[in-house]
Amino acid sequence: MAAYPPGMDSDERKRVLDPERDTDALKALTHPLRIQLLGLLRQDGPATASELAARTGESSASTSYHLRVLAKYAFIIEAEHRDGRERRWRARRTVTSWSNEVMESSEAGRAFVGLARRRQLEHLEMSLARHEADMAAGRLGEEWVQPSGISDLMPRLTAESLTELRDTIARKLEELTARDAENPRAEHVMLLTACLPLAPHDDGGTGREETDREDAS
């Protein structure tokens, strides 16, 4: 899930949500388990309700119900079945996106963005645990040690500079993803970009840390 500038439309890869046009779909996705199920289908590929129940700790009846809701609003579609016993589902698109400016104009939009952001933080925690387990078990090679990590920086930027930074990251990511699409050495990378301006404290302090902390460049 990601925020994009206003005016961008849905395509085969990306679905852009609008709080006025997609009111029911937005309400359907404002549920933690549905966001998690959609994320798992995008991350790990097609799965059945039973397989997703095992990964989430939910009952298969619960995951089956929530998958049908996601399908109703075109977030997922049926995938090719391995057999005729149980439906398999896959994500219809790889990204769900929205305009922060548009979402801010409605209560439903603000509620969704808040939930989505907190769900992304939970996804980061789970991805960190999975990454550490994969490295410890040797499922990832040593070449991944140096480039992986989490950066915690506090630069001073204008709104225009922050927008330029996000646009630059998006363009470079699209370029590198296309370049590595057929490379057998490529792996899924959990990339979370957080750009959160902070106002000064009420006591007149800057609210900024004295130093920047970074795991990896």
What is the CATH T-level topology of the largest domain? Arc Repressor Mutant, subunit A
Domain count: the total is 2
Separation, N- and C-terminal Cα atoms: 24 Å
User: Taking strands numbered 1, 2, ... along the chain, how are they ordered across the largest sheet?
Assistant: 1-6-2
State the order of secondary-structure elements, H for helix, E for strand. Answer: EEHHEHHEEEHHEHE
Largest sheet: 3 strands, parallel
| Structural class category | mainly alpha
The unreliable regions are 6-10, 207-214
Envelope shape: globular
The overall strand count is 8
What CATH architecture label of the largest domain applies? Orthogonal Bundle
Output the radius of gyration: 19 Å
Tally of alpha and pi helices: 7
CATH class of the largest domain: Mainly Alpha
The amount of beta strand, in percent, is 5-15%
In oligomeric terms, what are we looking at? Answer: single chain
Helix content: 40-55%
Mean pLDDT: 87
CATH-assigned homologous superfamily of the largest domain: Winged helix-like DNA-binding domain superfamily/Winged helix DNA-binding domain
